[in-house]
Amino acid sequence: MLAHPADDRDLAAWADHAATSVRTLTRLFQAETGMTFAQWRTHARIRAALILLAEGVPIRATTRAVGYRKPGAFAEAFRRITGDLPSVYNPP
């Protein structure tokens, strides 16, 4: 997931990939990260977005590269995590 933040497999698919149960993976995520899988995925995607934006990748391209279909949804998630809009990190 860190290598491919746009990967949209859900928790059940990741559990199957890891040959474990959803319940076990859910418990492990919470114990190891202090977050749910969904929260961790959002943080991982925003971390990847910060790198892309710092490299000068346009916001729309960054949005798609980290797994968001709508720029508005990406901007809202980005703001929730960082406290800023993506444009602060990638001015026009």
User: What's the average pLDDT?
Assistant: 94
Low-pLDDT ranges: none
Counting helices, strands and paired strands, the structural category is mainly alpha
SS elements, strand count: 0
Overall spatial form = elongated
Count of helical segments?
A: 5
Question: What is the string of SSEs from the N terminus onward?
Answer: HHHHH
- Beta content comes to under 5%
Describe, in plain words, how this protein is organized in 3D.
With 92 residues, the protein is an all-alpha fold. Helices cover 61% and strands 0% of the residues. It contains five helices and no strands. Helix 1 crosses helix 2. The longest helix is centred in the middle third of the chain and has 18 residues. It starts with 10 loop residues before the first helix and ends in a 10-residue tail after the last helix. The model has no long low-confidence stretch (mean pLDDT 94).
Short key terms for the protein model shown above:
61% helix; mainly alpha; elongated; 92 residues; single chain; 0% strand
Short description:
By secondary structure, the protein is mainly alpha-helical. It is built from five helices and no strands.
